[in-house]
């Protein structure tokens, strides 16, 4: 009887771990600077989640080291669900394929809550360079190896991988310049410091709306209805075609009680699928994908394999 009572006393706190969760503010840690798609997504989610759970949700930007700074910030926080990592596939799938000494494991250190969005990438070039097609870009790059440069949000980011694979498959040499955010890249392109960038249509919107950049190709299997004039890389003669985009989701420390993981995942997915928020996200050129912890775990596993194969085949390095 004493053993049974003691066991019940041990299990009851576990069963009730998430009963009063959350009872104080939550924090979403973003591995990029202010501006850009991840920051926009985080702030939209924070507003919707705060309204749903009745607690403030704070967004903290922790850019640098290809997302490692943000990942470590969450790793060192208590495993109680109050500190959430917003991550893209650069941090969770591409970076692990390039760097075998990361301080975190994408599948062991963190517990997935839910994917939020996916978005295709396009290759943009500064309009004043007079480059109107992928063929023209390849010719220009071959005439002056290393002269043309491209921006990314860090080694191992989708932006880096997309441009690196392009250089590898076209036999060209492009110079990589990392930044802390897409907003910083946009400013650099407007200042004619950067020539190219692989990013989403929302990230490049200030460039395209001002006429400072044009899209040469899109990294999808078929043309996008939202970007009908942009050929696929396959149509532009790149073989095999480049298929790179961004997936963005949320995670907590893997030791977080399972009931809190499930509750947070359900709340975040519901917020992302709400008519008001999903409309805002879709207007930014992104697709809402909010299916909870199990589905996001499968996405991470699939992308780990796909990007490892892509990195190995293209011979992409971390620099």
Total of domains: 2
Structural category is alpha/beta
Mean pLDDT: 90
- Strand line-up of the largest beta sheet: 2-1-3-10-4-11
CATH-defined architecture of the largest domain: 3-Layer(aba) Sandwich
Helix content: 40-55%
Within CATH, the superfamily of the largest domain carries the name Bordetella uptake gene, domain 1
The geometry reads as globular
Question: In percent, how much strand structure appears in the residues?
Answer: 15-25%
Poorly predicted runs: 1-15
What is the end-to-end distance?
A: 63 Å
What pattern of helices and strands is seen along the backbone? HEHEHEHEEHEHEHEHEEHHEH
Radius of gyration from the alpha-carbon trace, in angstroms: 21 Å
For the sheet with most strands, the description reads:
6 strands, mixed
Number of helices: 11
CATH-defined topology of the largest domain: D-Maltodextrin-Binding Protein, domain 2
Number of strands: 11
- CATH class placement of the largest domain: Alpha Beta
Report on the structure:
With 319 residues, this protein is an alpha/beta fold. It has 2 domains: 22-118 and 246-314, D-Maltodextrin-Binding Protein, domain 2; 122-218, 3-Layer(aba) Sandwich (D-Maltodextrin-Binding Protein, domain 2), CATH 3.40.190. It contains 11 helices and 11 strands. Helix 2 packs across helix 9. The chain is globular, with a radius of gyration of 21 Å.
């Amino acid at each position: 009887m004493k053993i049974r009572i003691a066991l019940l006393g041990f299990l009851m706190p576990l069963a009730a771990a998430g009963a009063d969760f959350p009872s104080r503010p939550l924090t979403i840690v973003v591995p990029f600077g202010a501006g850009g798609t991840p920051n926009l997504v985080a702030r939209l989610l924070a507003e919707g989640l705060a309204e749903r759970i009745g607690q403030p949700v704070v967004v903290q930007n922790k850019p640098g080291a290809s997302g490692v700074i943000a990942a470590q910030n969450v790793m060192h926080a208590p495993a109680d669900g109050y500190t959430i990592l917003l991550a893209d596939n650069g941090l969770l799938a591409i970076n692990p394929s390039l760097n075998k000494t990361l301080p975190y494991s994408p599948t062991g250190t963190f517990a997935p809550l839910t994917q939020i969005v996916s978005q295709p990438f396009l290759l943009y070039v500064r309009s004043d360079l007079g480059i109107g097609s992928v063929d023209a870009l390849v010719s220009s790059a071959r005439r002056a190896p290393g002269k043309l440069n491209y921006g990314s949000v860090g080694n191992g980011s989708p932006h880096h991988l997309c441009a690196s694979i392009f250089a590898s498959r076209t036999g060209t040499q492009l110079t990589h310049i990392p930044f802390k955010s897409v907003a910083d890249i946009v400013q650099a392109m407007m200042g004619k410091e950067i020539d190219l960038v692989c990013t989403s249509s929302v990230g490049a919107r200030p460039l395209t709306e001002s006429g400072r950049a044009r899209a040469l190709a899109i990294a999808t299997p078929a043309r996008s209805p939202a970007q009908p004039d942009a050929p696929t890389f396959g149509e532009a003669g790149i073989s095999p075609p480049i298929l790179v985009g961004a997936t963005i989701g949320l995670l907590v420390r893997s030791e977080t009680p399972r009931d809190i993981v499930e509750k947070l995942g359900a709340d975040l997915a519901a917020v992302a699928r709400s008519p008001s928020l999903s409309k805002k996200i879709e207007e930014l050129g992104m697709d809402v994908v909010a299916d909870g912890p199990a589905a996001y775990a499968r996405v991470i596993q699939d992308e780990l394999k796909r990007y490892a194969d892509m990195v190995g085949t293209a011979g992409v390095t971390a620099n």
